[in-house]
Design brief:
Blueprint lengths: L26 H28 L6 E6 L3 E6 L8 H7 L4 E5 L2 E5 L4 H12 L3
Antiparallel strand pairs: 1-2, 2-4, 3-4
Helix pairs in contact: 1-3
Amino acid sequence: MGHIEIQFNIKTPGREDSKDALKLYTKIDYITQKEAAVADEPVHKAQIQGIIDALGGKENINYITNCATRLRVEVKDESQVEGDEKWVNDLDAKGVVRSGKSLQIIYGAHVITLAAQVKDALDME
């Protein structure tokens, strides 16, 4: 009988396709990415201010906290809070859950950063 040779082409670390290969960045690449992030900063500030305004302003907010995916807010007057369309269409929320003066605004995993930025803008801890 003849000898049969079997070859396996298993993707192990270091044998990935070139599109999956590790990319090394130069200092210029890093600086360019950092400048792009700074250019996007006004968008974040506009969103943060938009959230505060949509909640009826700083004076209408009792407290803000968050869970893993939701911005949890208690307001003084729920009638001053914008409708769900504003939250979804203009402020990138996935949805809003309302229960009287309490709101849960669904943002996803990045809500932790978002909540911290809103608290900073309101000088709340």
